[in-house]
Amino acid sequence: MTVLATLVPLQAVAFGLVALGAPLVVLTRDPLRQALVNGVYGVSLVCLFVVLEAPDPALSMLVVSGIAYPLVLLAAIARVRGEARRRRRLGRARSRPDRSGRR
Amino acid sequence: MSWLPPLLVALPLLSAAAIAGGQRVTPRPLQDVVAVAAAVAATALSFLLLWQVGAREVVDWFGGWRPRGGVAVGVDFAVGPLAAGMCCAIGLVVALALVYSLAFLPGAGRPFQALLLVTLAAMDGFAMSGDLFNLFVWLELAGTAAYALTGFQVERLGPVQGAVNFAITNSVGGYLLAFGIALLYARTGALNLAAIGRVLAGKPAGGLVVAALTVVLCGFLVKGAVVPFHLWAADAYAVAPAPVCAVFGGVMTDIGLLGVARLYWTSFAGLVHGQTLGEVLLWLGIVSALLGGAMAFLQRHLKRLLAYSVVCHIGIMLAGIGLLEASALAGSELLFLAHALLTAGLFFVTGVLQADHGSVDELRLRGRGGRLLGLAWLGGSLGLTGAPYLGLYLGHGLLDEGASALGRPWAPALLWLGSALSGAALLRAGARIFLGWGAGRDPLLADALEEEPPGRAAGRRLLVTVAAVAVAGGLAISLVPGLGQRAAYAAARFRDRGAYAAAVLRGTPLRAPPRLPVSIEHTTLEGVLSACGATLAAAALALLALGRRRLPQALSTAAARTLGPPVRVLHAAHSGVVGDYVTWVAVGTAVTGAAWSVLLRGG
Amino acid sequence: MSYLPYAVAAWICLVGLAGVATSRNLVHLAVCLTVMQSSTYVLLLSVGYVAGGRAPIFKGAKPGAKAVDPVVQALTLTDVVVSVAVVALILALALDAHRLAGTVDPDGLADVHG
Amino acid sequence: MSRRGRLALLGPALLGLGALLGWGVAGLPAFGHYRGPYGFVLDRIVVPLRHTTNVVMGTTFDVRGVDTMGEEFILYAAVLGVTLLLRSGERGRPGRQAGERLGTDGLRLLGVTMVGGGVLVGLWLAAFGYVTPGGGFQGGALVAGTILLLYLVGGRSAYAPFLAEAALDPLESLGAGGYVVIGLAALASGLPFLTNLLGLGTPGSLVSGGSIAALNWASALAVTVALLTLFAEFLETYVVPLARADEA
Fold first, then answer.
1. Is residue C10 part of a domain?
2. B503: which DSSP letter?
3. C72: domain CATH number?
4. A56: which chain D residues are within 8 Å (Cβ-Cβ)?
5. Over 60: is that where the pLDDT of C114 sits?
6. Percentages helix, strand, coil for chain B, rounded to the nearest 5?
7. Average pLDDT over every residue of B25-42
8. C75: domain range?
9. Which positions in chain A touch C3 (Cβ < 8 Å)?
10. Do residues C70 and D63 lie in contact, with contact meaning Cβ atoms separated by under 8 Å?
């Protein structure tokens, strides 16, 4: 049995996209941009699941990467930035020892 | 069918849902009663189950999905005496922790109690499950609850990274496990442990099986805090509240070991050269025991000290499993029971110290402990060292017998050394805190930590009572008449792969069990001598650490010069940085995988 | 070449692991964990695939029709939910750490060790 | 360990691990050649025995129903945990303030329409889960996500009713606890835990699968409320204070 008989081109493309997407997500070091790239990676996983005849996991992945991840990630990122801003302001007002500065 | 195994899981889960769901409508005392009652009931049911499994393997298929045509379709709980015994200890420790937290964490709120009950259910489910993916589900459930329990009090100033490191390292371990499950499923077409074992039996281990069992077992070892996968442990225990530490150190870390033992004896033991798996486990255990003991000796933060003592004893138990011998496995089982209660008790004592003085720092607490508390600490320390006829003694004794039967008397000697090291750390801390011995400074020990404000002393009597009960229970394990023989029988059942598979897949009843005597297990003279030796060594080391100043100047400088560099290396390796921990997980997995790929192929 | 799907799964696992080990930001690290976990979905669904098989949904089909493995899909569903739970918890812990230490860099959080 | 030291250790470790995994997957059956038997047995027996045409859901909620019970509680524990973590950190912060609204009326209208549609699609996904693709988790997550849209289009005041903790906590417990209760009902009638008790119905219709429908709805409820609580915790405790900090 040859390769292409078992791995149809559509599946090969989907696998290729996922294989490329993973390092892209990891290498995007800025969290906000990474959240977006991760969304795209999620969509590529959804496509892969569809061509693997797995509609239930595909739907599941769709709601997770389309709703759940972005919401918690964006809220967390917004919070981190807001806190950092407030800390900078406070830091100027009264110089508090910052425990992060040790290393 | 028995209604007990599913109830052990369903009851705490349902109580957790009721407590968290009704937190706005039901009065506080009622909630407390429900939480404690659920844990006590789960414990009582575990003892009932222990009695029920005396003569048979209790196999329960969820939804009534029994095997069809030899294929295990559903998910099963298959319980023997070893698993039931573990459930008893798990229930007992969680119940004690819940009672303790009534006074210790009065403001923690209902989510705390609900999460502890969820942890209880997850650990019981893990101990009983006979399905590989189901094991993963319970492990993740226990983990999810545990991450939150570790982190929720971090605002009281502590090493903030502890909870984060714990969650991340354990998640990585869990995903390795999941990857391995997929590989094993592809190889065997089954998720039931007995069915997997049947497919693999008598076959040589190819690359697929080697890779699969490596990532699966390493996943469990991460949860079990075995060197080099142990780095998260001290960080997590340092931030978690004392009753949570008692549950983690007493029982939750150990279920990782149960996973290793369960997988080996149901699924991998039949592989050609399968017994070489034990070789690596034995050495991982020995290294954990020695490194854990040494690290414990270098701590001044009591919770971190106890965390490394847990790593040390986990190593000893793993070595008992890795010897792949009936008596040694029985030894590990008894070690687990005694260690669970003693470690929980010592964490409870630490909690009282923290409530009284707002500190868990050995040096800062010097000379400040009370007498009853000191007695509990002394008992716990001696029990964990394995002093004759106390605590871990009987477990050590059985393990020694197993090792000598295999012609490996050097293994227990190394394990005793680890035990003595961590015992010395405990005795030194006890002498400094409760007797005021030694100096108030010690450059050998790790950094100081920030202090917390002293807590409230209300309900202190309850806290001390719970601590004393746990320590007393743990000390008594070596003296319970008939326990040694029953542990040996349980171990023999646990190792009988054929009987387990027949009971699970075909419902074949077991052979009638032998009549077991009710007497205190006889131990050899060698056992008594080793225990005395370890206890004396621990005491001597503790005294040496406390009275270093009195030694001749030349001697102590020489000692400092030789010990200094390795101590610095040890401190530096436990860096507190999660990236390092994950790196060590990768290194450990790659190295054990390499070892197994040589050994399992008969190399 | 018919091992390409499995190789992709192993590759994603390693990439995710490398990301976790080298991350400088806990939010970024949480996403790397989900990438690592996605390797298990890819592996599970790949090993359960049957060439020419249909999805294991038999509405309007004969029950004997050739279909892919439903077990791996059920396992994947559970796995996906686990990942949401873990990400939410790690982000919450990361925010707590940030509130206390003022940084989300795991290398900068370590104020106690040894 | 320095970062360079870590990388020096990580590189070889990943190479070794990659070699191990590569060696492992090379031993797998070729892609597309799943050999069974577990999956094939289920493909054959679930429809006749349970009348659920979606075998995956039949597996999730019946054959391996206990895994899903664990899964519900993983989500439940995560929500409890996030609540515990984030609320303990927020003690002593000033109270919440009324929210701000988004964009134009047209945008809001579009949003409200989408909310209605989303909730309907979500309920449909959940309802037909054991007949066609979908199920409690997917449907519940979609419903939760679209209710959240109200936060964006209607401001906090429109979303607030869905955030009342007094309502959310019992509902979520009802979902997760309901799953256990359905399992216990079987135990109480002398059958194994989680045995399918109700009538099996006609294959391919909503009236099929017996207890699966009940478990499916319990899980949909648990997931919807869990995700709503999760989002609420993250948004309430984090986004709102941020907006205030920006104004200052």
1. yes
2. I
3. 1.10.287.3510
4. 54, 56-57, 133-135, 138
5. no
6. 75, 0, 25
7. 90
8. 4-57+66-109
9. none
10. no
